[in-house]
Each structure stands twice: as structure tokens, then as C-alpha cells.
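Instructor's aside before we start: the two examples that follow are unrelated to each other. I chose them only because their records fit on one page, so don't look for a connection. First example below.
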Amino acid sequence: YRLYTREVHDRDMQDHDASEVQRQPLDDVILSLKEMLPSAEDVLPTMRELIEPPDECALRNALASLRALGMTASGDEDAPLTVLGECCAKAPVDMRLGRFVALGCMLGVSTEACACAAAISLPHPPFLRPNPFAATDPLELYSIAAKVFTARDRFDEGLLSEPLMCTNLLREFARQRTERARRHFISDNGL
């Protein structure tokens, strides 16, 4: 049994999912291949031999993107990875977040760069979202909203940046030494 009709299945459903190389950003795939394969010259021939090879224009754009981000020494298909490119290829994160963290490490702010990268990758902020279904009392709902608003304002420090606000929040949380202090911090700030 299915939750849709045979007509919907036949009309709207695909026979199979798109391949991973079609779903992932192509520059990420090329960066990973350049790191894995013994020679940078092997990457594009390997990409062209795939069952569903990417478009040549997309390959050229991905190579240009890698060069623009400083991951390769040039925009040529046989260009070797730079030190930054090697770091990002080994990191288990999105290439742009990896670049962000690597540059933060080079500038001596690795903790802040990691915290910002984590904040950027959050699907939503760590604060409670006032929900009338969970808190049926209007005063309780208002109290949660006020805690969240006050905490966001305090940790933002006028920067108007959610990643930096989350970094400040994480820094302050780390200053809480005991489990009890951390629980109070979470409760007091609507987390």
C-alpha cells in the first residue's frame, strides 16, 4: 500500500534518484577527487567517464569557482590543490565552510571561526520558539518570547549578525563552569 495513487506514482514519481554527482555541488566533488586521485590530471577524465557525466560548461564553472576560492593554483583542469584546498578537501564540511574555518585558523581565530561555521550551518537558531500549542498560558508564552528577545539582543551586541550572535552565546556558555550554572544559563536565555 502507498499513500498516493498509481496515477500519481506513474505521472509524478521518478524511476530512480539522481546520482550523487548530480546532487552535490560540482566544485565540492572536483575538490574531493583532486585530493583522492594520485594526479590532478585524472579528475576530469574520471568525471567524463561517469554514467551520468556533468555538463562541460558546469565543469569549467566549477574549476573557475575552485580557483576563485583559492582551492587550486589556477583554473586549469590539471591545476594542483593549494594548501587551503588540501585543508578543505580533508575537512568533513562544505567547501566554503571549510575555507572559512581554515582562514580563521590562519588568522589565529580558530575557535571563533569554528563557532561561526557551526552557527552558519544550523538549520535554525538555538533559541526556543514560542509555541501556543506547547505553552497554552498567554503569560508563559509572553515570558518565553521576552527571554528569547532579550537574550538575542544581548548576545548580538548590535552587530546584527546571527552567526556572530551564536558565537557570543557559545563563548558565554563555555564560561559557565558547573552543570548547574549551564542549566540556569540555558533556562535564563530561552535556549
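Example two begins here.
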Amino acid sequence: NAAYSWDEKTYSFILYALRPIARGEEVCISFTATEEPRDLRQKRLKTIYKFDCKCSACDLSDARSILESDKRRQIVKHWHEEEIYQFEDWVHSEDDAKTLLKSWWRVIEAHEKEGLDIPFKALYTMTMMHYALGHQVSFQQWAKQLAGAMRINAWKRMDSRYVDGLYSLLFAVQNPHTRSKTWGCKAPQRR
């Protein structure tokens, strides 16, 4: 539910939330590659840091749960290594949206079920695909999640591009049809 970054100016680590953290909830950071199988993560943590992790992802009791978790983490690992078909490629192609939406949904679902932070690129792609398809309600739902991620990135990196992008996104959420020529550009043509 948290991560850290190094601040060169202050020569210190900055701890920041990846999602809202409830009062009384433990603040946790990852000490190892979260996309690796449970046994490998456990072994590394024991060898390097000398502790047994008891987080919800590591503290699974039955073999079936461990196997299902490892399969989802394999999807996550594949995404990090390969990065599936990109929005920018799709919007300039004649390909239909179903395949790309399904691929990205699998990535997002695997992250959610494993309690992992949904990648910024996945949120961006789902948001922009629904924008290009002219799906107003879906666009607005994804855009709200993306805006949350952009807020974190704007604060974490203190980068004005994220702040400017966030304001543009929030404006588009209010009335997507008037925002740009991209709205609905990939919507199926009705006859």
C-alpha cells in the first residue's frame, strides 16, 4: 500500500501511499519483486532480510491458493517484461477493441486480485481506449482511477507534466465530447 523514492535534493527517502490507507492499517512496502512466485519471494526475504513475510500475498495456507496467486503473478511478470499491445498502436490500426481490452483487463484483474498497484500504463490505456470508443461512463470511471494515479505521480515526482495532464484529464471527464477529435474516433460506425 506504500512505496518510497529517493530525493536527491534532501538526500532522503520519501514514503508515499499507493492507495488510500485506512486508519489503523499497517503501512507496507515491498522488499522483493512482487511479480515473482510466492516460494521465490519467501526464500529471498529469508536469505537477504532474515524474516518470514506474513503479508496477505505471502501468508497463503493452501496449495490451490498459492498456485492461483502464482499464475496471476505470472501474468503480471509477463506484462512487466513484454508490455502487451499498446493503445498508441491500436488507435492507428484497423484492429477491433475487444482483444486489446481483454488483454489489459487480464493485467488489471491480476494486479487487483494480488493486491498490487495497477500500473499507470494500464490505467492510461483503459481510459484512452474508452475515450476513443466514445464510451462515456466507462471513460469517466477509468479516468477517475487514472486521476488518482496521476495525483500520486505529480506529488512523487514533483513534475509539472503530471499536474498539467491531470487538469486536462479532469476537464475531459466533465464533458468528453467537446475535448478533442479523438473522442469516439474508434466507435463502431452505425448504419
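The longest strand covers residues 2-7.
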